[in-house]
């Protein structure tokens, strides 16, 4: 009986200690690593998260910028941080998946605890106003008629636009010549100037253009930002891809810290203020909880790996 009482007392003490820790977290400022430079797209999203995080908690993040290698440097820093809940980071999909798959990063996808996804920016196939291609069907037919002669501008290599281009070629059974550019603005300039047949840019960027025509978007459903633009899927090319910002932490967070971060970020992302502010930036605020996010990231790793192998971009 005495042994039972001692065990019960120990269990109660441990439970009380855990509850006290949970109640005390966080008792200091949380650092948010941004793997890109200040003022860029990821930073703007992070600042929006911070603004409404303060409304929820009365605390702001300590911003730490660690740019380099298209985000790989900062993402690796997140994975190597202390797993105590006081260092988290904002990273991009599909870049986070592509980098370790392609060998351009040292981190692995199981080196993180996934807190949640906060937004989504699908990819638009855009042609110049003067283009003879009025529909996606027109573009695909022309590409099939003259394989490899049509040019498609993409921002950088092995990013969201590059993956979308490979998926389009694979699913539509076409071949186009890819033209990597230095940034979204340069991609738009090449399209608008008629220097390429078409290009792939973020929907948020497209909505700010005064010229150019969108033939299709990679979202699962038509976007409210461009309701007249059909999806690739409804045109028979099943592409579902978007640049997404997600919040992660180093793997192994205490349960109470992970629960706090997930619950608070959910409240932020689903708040009316965050949704409105995201829309003003041309971004769709989309909450995806950490467990579902981790599952989708691992599924993306499998599909992206197969695609890159097919086009001989990895062994």
Provide structural commentary.
The protein contains eleven helices and ten strands. By secondary structure, the protein is of the alpha/beta class. Strands 1, 2, 3, 4, 5, 6, 7, 8, 9 and 10 form a ten-stranded mixed beta sheet that branches. The chain is globular. The model is unreliable at 11-20 (pLDDT under 50).
Descriptors for this entry?
alpha/beta; globular; 315 residues; 10-stranded mixed β-sheet; 11 helices
Structural class: alpha/beta
Main pleated-sheet profile = 10 strands, mixed
Alpha plus pi helix count? 11
How much of the residues is beta strand, in percent?
Answer: 15-25%
- Name the overall outline: globular
Topology at a glance:
Blueprint: H1 2-24, E1 31-34, H2 41-57, E2 62-65, H3 72-80, E3 87-93, H4 95-102, E4 112-127, H5 136-145, E5 151-155, H6 160-172, E6 177-181, H7 184-192, E7 198-202, H8 203-206, E8 213-217, E9 242-250, H9 255-269, H10 272-280, E10 284-289, H11 290-310
Parallel strand pairs: 1-2, 1-3, 5-6, 5-7
Antiparallel strand pairs: 3-9, 4-7, 4-8, 4-9, 4-10
Summarize the structure.
The protein is α/β, with parallel strands linked by helices.
